[in-house]
Amino acid sequence: MAHFNSFVRIPFLVLRQAIKPLPGMAPLETDTLKLRVWPNDVDFNFHLNNARYLNVMDYGRIHLLARSGLLKPAIQARWTPVVGGVWITYRRSLGLWARYRLATRLVGWDERWFYFEQTFLGDEGLVAAGWVKGALLDKAGAVAPQQIMELAQPGIVSPPLSESIQILNELTREKLQSAG
Q: Is the predicted pLDDT of residue 4 greater than 90, yes or no?
């Protein structure tokens, strides 16, 4: 059960899209999922395990790809989704059986990466917020995000990347360069 999203939920979503697609949405709209904390999601403190947040975020991004019309072409082209960075902050816990919402939003892209904002909302408000840098790869490497976005909405341009995203990218570059 440790990888329920990877081995059950995501393949089921792909299959469902082939049979009865989810309602469509524009690529820059926010996709919201209603979820619950199950026994296989908790740690010894009986709250949503910090690693499980990342797993749920994976599902949220695939769900957004499906609703925005990009999942089918990605599968047909055999593009592989990869994550280049994750920044997450936790504000409150989600206990066993708690209901919560995951809101996923594409905030922009550059020549190589897509940038997503994902927020977890519980009954008491914000639970956690995360930002993900991801790409789709083919055999030659990263597929240009603009090329991918043209499939969903021809002529679309990225909103300007926030100063926060730019700072996170710079901090990452500095760390990678200093690591050799």
A: no
